[in-house]
Amino acid sequence: xxxxxxxxxxxxxxxxxxxxxxxxxxxxxxxxxxxxxxxxxxxxxxxxxxxxxxxxxxxxxxxxxxxxxxxx
Length: 72
Description:
The protein is an all-alpha fold. It has one domain (about 5-65).
């Protein structure tokens, strides 16, 4: 299995840059989508294997110390 920590860290950095650029342009990054566990799962390439999806979500939680999103 792949360790997704670096890719999720890259996703979070991308979100910070995008938020700053959008703020400068008078807009904002929609917090419903980014940065979120679901957003990380969409942006980090993986094979849609549930185990890999869980690794991405865990990496997100480890890097953000955010609680898990409610199950849909």
